[in-house]
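Dear support,

Our group has been running a series of protein-ligand predictions, and this particular one with adenosine monophosphate is the one our PI (initials K.S.) wants archived with full inputs and outputs. We had some confusion internally about which version of the output was final, so please treat the block below as the authoritative record. The input we submitted was:
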Amino acid sequence: MQINFDNTYGNLPKNFYTQIKPTPVVNPHLILFNWPLACDLGLNVEREELQKIADVFSGNLVLESSNPLALVYAGHQFGYFVPQLGDGRAVLLGEVVNTSGARYDIQLKGSGKTSYSRGGDGRATLGPMLREYIVSEAMHGLGIKTTRSLALVTTGEPVFRDTILPGAILTRVASSHIRVGTFEYFAAQKDFESLKILADYAINRHAPHAKDSKNPYFSFLEFVLDMQTSLIVDWMRVGFIHGVMNTDNTAISGETIDYGPCAFLDEYVPDKVFSAIDSYGRYAFNKQFSIGLWNFIKLSETLAFLLSTELKASAAIIKELERLFIEKFHEKYLEMMAHKIGIFIPDEKDGQLIQDLLNIMEENYLDYTLTFRHLIQNTGQSSWALLKDFAVPRGFQQWIEVWKVRLVSQGVTHDEVVALMAAQNPILIPRNHRIEEAIDFAVEHNDFSKANRLIKAFSDPYKNNEEFIDLGQPPTSQQRVYQTFCGT
Ligand code: AMP
Ligand code: MG
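Confirmed final output from the archive:
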């Protein structure tokens, strides 16, 4: 195996990270490896060298080109500022640049203690790492920006939580690990020199176009707001609840990062919270926009001194960015919801049409995913086995009649409407009960067949595949998952 790591982050000043080797593990065993992703990344890996893959992606074998680093960052966790967090159980092995010129971080998660472990053991357990693997790859299948999962290795070591659990290491691939919290770390120390270095690095890596603009830092923030608003709209499109939108879990690239207690809506409950640690519903499904904005303002504030040398002027610029964030989000949200119901270009009345539908869904606890597929079926598609138990509530048919008139008014073909809707509305989402079932099975029986089946099914979630009909069904009352846990 040959990986040519390139380490631009390691060339940043020493106060951005600590150099640290992963702590070796007793018995690394490769459970999952994402061959298509390895290929996209241009990694030179052969199927004959499974043990070597396990050694590299457990951290037991550090390749020569690698310069392992734990990155420092801070963060607002549930609204409270923690001045120093950092990779407490992760190391960045290095960056790779693929044949298209895209740069990615390759990071081990669960690789042992670092100087940022704050009393933690630096380790991760199989269940949550498998969960991140399945859900992040499902997000990718859904077409939503996300970190990816390259490898899952069990360590052969026990990890002590409430009970003794099998240890595991996940290899995470991200277009970078720069978070809002990375900026907050330097801002809290009033280290303006490092902040500028970080901002310039982030611009070079993620938004090089910003360099040519009149105010590069404003353009950079415009880029971040564009990415963040698109991301949250995409989450809402598929009913995803991140669950811990702390600023340290908000990547400036606009990728979904840190799959802790995240979950997907079954029935439509707009203020739904699954996370056991989110007692006040700060990160509820319908709060994700306002939290995204809050996080974005925190980022903007750290760069205030670069936006203008005058305090008043930077405050005005941040206000303008806030306005833009709100405007962009609402624009994108309306367009996304319109597309979900087959409307190409929404007009001012469509907002109400969409709200009426959401009200019917909320009042009747309709399944978020199946409702939109039911609508596609109502445009004249043949009926699907998946929808045979979908109960149509009173009042819904009336809405459908109004909606159909609106569809016809567009002057586009029926096929075009169906294609638009089918591209927005997945058939399969990683339903919580299915994920939990696959994880329990893997942890209890060391059998990954259910997990592998999910990974395969979710790689193409818009396809009507008879083989996976069971995965499209909502949970029965016995299968229902009420709470999700971070599992750190
Ligand atoms: P997370 O909840 O995964 O976003 O983690 C929040 C912070 O806690 C990050 O700084 C992590 O590195 C750190 N952390 C989480 N679990 C552990 C652990 N087992 N050992 C050390 N640090 C950890
Ligand atoms: Mg985190």
